[in-house]
Q: What sequence folds into this?
């Protein structure tokens, strides 16, 4: 507890960030107030604007300021290849690290019945509609190899196979229990290029 309730409020607010505990939050807060008030204001403005203006693409559920994101709007993308990822960070990692020129579907999570996350929360009805449109020939499962990721992959593969769509999964280089956004670009590129049938 500091002498300033506003400082305490800032420290508590910073704890919402992943991996930021009370000590790290305190260091960040003190740094911003002691050495970088201008940066703190820019951060606050950018965060507020992003929260207010960034929504989801109507087609793939990626973050977007427009109804369709830049990827879904790009006519040069191959709509026959649909890569399913858990979150926008994984989409960005794959798109920046590989030469993948297909399209994406962002789940915004993974199936986890214990946490109350089912097919509805992941927009799987929207994904199934995309698959039924007939353009997709291959569904690439780029979900993390965790227990929930495996359950999600199995569910998606059954959905795609019922529609006679080839299902592949990222291959070598992705450690069991690892998160895709934590991988280096070389590992991610190899895993993506050496994907296998699932």
A:
């Amino acid at each position: 507890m500091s002498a300033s309730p506003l400082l305490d409020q800032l420290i508590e607010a910073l704890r919402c960030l992943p991996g930021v505990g009370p000590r790290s939050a305190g260091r960040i807060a003190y740094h911003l107030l002691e050495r970088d008030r201008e940066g703190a204001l820019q951060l606050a403005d950018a965060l507020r604007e992003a929260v207010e203006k960034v929504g989801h693409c109507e087609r793939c559920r990626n973050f977007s300021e427009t109804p369709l994101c830049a990827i879904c709007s790009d006519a040069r993308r191959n709509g026959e290849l649909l890569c399913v990822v858990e979150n926008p960070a994984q989409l960005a990692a794959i798109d920046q690290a590989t030469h993948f020129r297909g399209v994406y579907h962002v789940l915004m999570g993974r199936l986890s019945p214990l946490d109350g996350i089912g097919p509805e929360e992941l927009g799987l009805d929207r994904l199934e509609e995309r698959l039924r449109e007939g353009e997709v020939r291959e569904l690439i499962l780029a979900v993390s190899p965790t227990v929930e990721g495996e359950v999600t992959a199995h569910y998606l593969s059954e959905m795609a196979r019922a529609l006679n769509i080839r299902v592949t999964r990222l291959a070598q280089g992705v450690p069991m229990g690892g998160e895709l956004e934590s991988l280096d670009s070389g590992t991610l590129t190899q895993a993506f290029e050496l994907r296998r049938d699932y």
